[in-house]
Every structure is written in structure tokens, then in C-alpha cells.
Design a protein that fits this description.
Strand content: 25-35%
Shape: elongated
Distance between the termini: 25 Å
Number of helices: 12
């Protein structure tokens, strides 16, 4: 049974161009602080019923979070539906078992989570399909020698010393290839996940619920989108691969090729990306997520949801669900281009002068964000004769990650200084290095940076032929797969029960 017209405000969401009802458009009621106080979705007729509130103004947002909110004077809202324009680009509409997420219609999904989650439907013909997302991945391949099992040096026999102190790096340059892979993500729509919590409130009652979400990192600069977080989990950015920190491409584990063939390496890269994408999406969903009762004096934050039964004669049950989104993922054909690996010696960058000189880079790439105040203090002109504890802690951190920060400075530092350093070197063929490479760092393997070659003619004959053969007939990787990833926060659905007077009358009839 639905609520009366006096208990709700009715809105009709319509398309801007045609004026036809827009189905599946999310409508959010916002508090003064900007937090969401309620969430609804328009039905097949574009109708959204929002419970009336004792407030002179109603602040709502039609569409996704990217849309600007609007303010309406409640005194001017009539009993009939008030038309509101839908966004230009609409999200895919949902078909939810039993109706939409209308907090007063009583048609919310059943609270039992045993049944399968409803699948999203395709957008209406007059709705424009949302563009997909493209994620960029790179993998470095080092051309190795065919000979294996070379005699080991030293008196330790054939065992490898994994704890030996690394030297200044390899003494010779090596050739290789950079494999570029693109993933195209097309959204198939959002859907309900598991039921997390349910609470039933009497008329006029309210409750505060705390959302315990351990799936996402909290950062000072803001929170990345779920797709970006998943991409970083697929790539190897754990210890800050410099390309990941400074460019949009995400780095995969490098590999060494002993045979002059690139197609097996690209096929292995495509398989790795697909396998990691599926495993990381499942890993995100396995992280803790729950809803519990919050203390009455808990401050109003984004992690505290405030629900209230605004009806006068019936119970309302609020259900908290996990929000999910399904994507169709297509891995495009990988590309390959030649590179040369140039070893470099580790400079001493753990000094106040170097940190001040490249402070703009340290701000962007600092591994331990907790040391950012110490960095700002040092960049602000800390010229004490004796180093204080905070400055010493920062310099010790940089010294313990010397390879990473040295690579950051080489990669994103002064291009002229990098060109001057490269001009003093000669490639494996004896030509000046600046004549055969581009002055751009595309990655790092160990203590050697990868620089793109201007021409594949610089490669050895067998590898040049292998690269030319692959570029003529690249790997065809058009297969697609479906991935489901969670979204931050929770969805709230309200289920209104029968009026209490009707329940009492039914009980009296049954008893009499």
C-alpha cells in the first residue's frame, strides 16, 4: 500500500529534449552538510515520491554525483508531480524486483539476500549510451642471451646469493621492447549486491548507522574512483613504480625474452592482465564491509547514515545493500616498440639541498604520505645547523628508497640535464646515445632506465626481424569478459509496511 499524496512530494523526471518520462534516474536528497539523506530512483513513469520533511527548502540532486544540486522551496510544491529535467547523459536504467528504490512505495527489494541479484537492463532507445573507460598498461621485455647455465663465479658453487649488496648496476646496455596494452571498460549498469543490514523504525523514530568500509584507501587529496583503484591493484605500483606515479600508464612485471619472438610475450601479457583483473575485483569484494548501530552522539560524517521514519501510521524497514557495477572488459591488441636499457649509478639524493631542489617531485611521489609535513617543513626554509628529528626521519626514508627517488629525479627532472648525461654515453653500436634514443624515460628494470629507440634499425638483426614480424601481424586480442566491482558506501532502500490501524483491525477480526 502506498503512502498518501499529503505524506510525500511527487516529482516527475523527464528528458530535456523530448519531455518523455525518464526511467531509472537516481534522485538524492542532500543535507545542509552535503551528505546524502535519502536516495530514490524514478519508475517507468518517471515518478519519484520523496517523504515530506519539516524544512522550508529541499536540496536535491538529479543524476549522479557529477550533477549540480538544486534547491526547491517546499511551499511552492503542489500535490501533483513537479517536473524535473533529467541529466543530458543518463545512467543505465535498472529493473529491480518488486519496483524501484522508492522509500515510501513499499516496493523495495525483499530483505532476504538469498536470491540472485537483479541484473541491469539495457538503456532505453532514446537514451545515449555512456562512453567507456580506457586503462593503459605497459610491460618491459628485456632481450636476453640464448645461452643459459653459465658457470657461476665465486667460491659459493652454483648457489645464488640473494642477500648480497647490489653493485652500481650492469656495465652494459641491453635492448628490449615496450609492450603497450589497453583495456576498454564499458559499463553494463549498476545492481544491488548483498543485504548488509536492516532496521525497522516506528513512526517518527530515527536511527544512526555507521558504515564500516575497509575496501578503500583514505587519502588527504581525495578518493580515487573504484576503477582507478582496481587498475592500481592490477599494476605493480606497490612501491611506487615511477611511471605509475608520474604518468597514466600502469606498469606490469617485466620479463626476459631468450628467443626472438614477441607474440608469446604479448599473449602472456594479455593473459596476465585478464587474470589479475578478475582476481583483484574479487579481492575488493572480499574486503570488510558492514553496517552497525552508531552511538547517538556520533558526529555526522560520510560514514554515518541517518535514517528516519517520516510516516505517521506505519512501520518502515530500511535495508542497506552493497552497490555493485558490472563492466564488459575488452583487451585491445598489444603494441610493441623498441627500447634500450641504460644503467645508472645511484647518486646521494638524501640531502637537504637535493630535496629542496626537487621538492615539487618529492611532493608528488613521496612513498610515505605521513612524512609530507616533514617535507613541507624542510622545503619551507628549515636551515637549522643541527638536523631535527623530523628532518632526519625524512632523509633516512629517502636514503632507504634511494633507487626509487633517484629514478623519479631522472625521469621527471630537468630534460636538459638528462640529455647532457646521455650525450656522454655511446650505445652498443658505438653511436652517441642521444642520436638513437628519445629523451623520455618509459620505465625501469633494476638500476637501468628504459629509453625508446628512434628506429628499430638499432636492434640486433634477429630481434629487429622479430619486432618487424610482430608489427606486421600483431596479436589479435578481441575477446571480452565481464567483471563486477563494488562502489564506495552503501545503498539504502525503505520498505513501508501496512498502516498500524489496519494491522490492528485485521488482528481484531482474526481474534473475533
Amino acid at each position: 500500500m502506498t503512502s498518501g499524496a499529503k505524506d510525500v512530494w511527487l516529482f516527475r523526471i523527464v528528458h530535456q529534449d523530448t519531455g518523455k518520462p525518464a526511467q531509472g534516474v537516481p534522485v538524492t536528497v542532500l543535507e545542509k552538510s552535503g551528505n546524502a539523506a535519502g536516495y530514490w530512483v524514478s519508475d517507468a513513469d518517471g515518478i519519484v515520491a520523496i517523504p515530506r520533511r519539516d524544512t522550508p527548502r529541499l536540496r536535491i540532486r538529479v543524476g549522479l554525483r557529477s550533477e549540480d544540486p538544486i534547491e526547491l522551496t517546499t511551499a511552492t510544491l503542489s500535490e501533483g508531480p513537479t517536473p524535473l529535467a533529467a541529466p543530458t547523459q543518463l545512467p543505465p536504467s535498472l529493473t529491480v524486483s518488486g519496483g524501484g528504490r522508492d522509500s515510501t512505495s513499499g516496493t523495495a527489494p525483499a530483505p532476504a539476500p538469498a536470491g540472485p541479484a537483479p541484473s541491469p537492463t539495457r538503456p532505453a532507445p532514446d537514451q545515449q549510451e555512456l562512453p567507456g573507460h580506457v586503462l593503459y598498461f605497459q610491460r618491459l621485455a628485456v632481450f636476453g642471451d640464448k645461452t643459459v647455465g653459465a658457470p657461476a663465479t665465486g667460491g659459493g658453487g652454483g648457489g645464488a646469493d640473494f642477500f648480497a649488496t647490489p653493485g652500481d648496476g650492469p656495465s652494459a646496455m641491453r635492448y628490449g621492447a615496450l609492450i603497450d596494452v589497453e583495456e576498454y571498460w564499458q559499463s553494463l549498469g549498476v545492481q544491488w549486491g548483498e543485504l548488509l543490514y536492516s532496521v525497522t523504525l516506528t513512526p517518527g523514530d530515527e536511527a544512526k548507522l555507521a558504515v564500516l568500509d575497509g575496501r578503500w584507501r583514505r587519502e588527504v587529496e581525495g578518493r580515487e574512483r573504484p576503477l582507478q583503484i582496481l587498475a592500481r591493484m592490477v599494476g605493480t605500483s606497490m612501491l611506487g613504480d615511477l611511471i605509475t606515479a608520474l604518468r597514466p600508464e600502469l606498469q606490469l612485471d617485466p620479463l626476459t625474452l631468450t628467443e626472438p619472438a614477441l607474440e608469446p610475450a604479448t599473449a602472456d601479457t594479455v593473459h596476465m592482465i585478464r587474470d589479475r583483473t578478475e582476481r583483484m575485483s574479487n579481492a575488493l569484494r572480499r574486503r570488510p564491509l558492514g553496517v552497525v548501530d552508531a552511538p547517538a552522539d556520533a558526529p555526522a560524517t560520510g560514514a554515518v547514515r541517518h535514517v528516519r521514519n517520516t510516516t505517521r501510521d506505519r512501520l518502515v524497514t530500511f535495508h542497506f545493500f552493497e552497490p555493485l557495477e558490472r563492466f564488459k572488459v575488452i583487451v585491445r591488441s598489444p603494441r610493441a616498440r623498441p627500447v634500450v636499457f641504460v644503467p645508472f649509478r645511484l647518486p646521494n639524493v638524501a640531502t637537504p639541498d637535493v630535496v629542496r631542489r626537487f621538492g615539487y617531485l618529492f611532493r608528488r611521489t613521496l612513498l610515505d604520505r605521513g612524512l609530507l609535513p616533514d617535507l613541507e617543513r624542510l622545503l619551507g626554509g628549515d636551515t637549522l645547523a643541527l638536523p631535527d628529528a623530523s628532518r632526519q626521519r625524512l632523509l633516512e626514508h629517502i636514503d632507504s628508497n634511494l633507487l626509487y627517488y633517484s629514478t623519479v629525479i631522472i625521469t621527471a627532472g630537468d630534460p636538459a640535464a638528462r640529455y647532457l648525461a646521455l650525450s656522454k654515453l655511446r650505445g652498443p653500436n658505438g653511436r652517441p646515445l642521444t642520436d638513437v634514443v628519445e629523451n623520455t624515460v618509459v620505465g625501469r628494470v633494476g638500476s637501468a632506465i628504459a629509453l625508446p629507440l628512434r628506429s628499430a634499425d638499432e636492434l640486433p638483426g634477429e630481434w629487429r626481424e622479430a619486432l618487424a614480424a610482430y608489427q606486421a601481424r600483431p596479436l589479435r586480442a578481441g575477446d571480452s569478459f565481464v567483471v563486477t566491482i563494488p562502489h564506495p558506501g552503501v545503498w539504502v532502500s525503505a520498505q513501508a509496511h501496512e498502516p498500524m490501524q489496519q494491522q490492528q483491525a485485521d488482528s481484531s477480526e482474526a481474534a473475533g
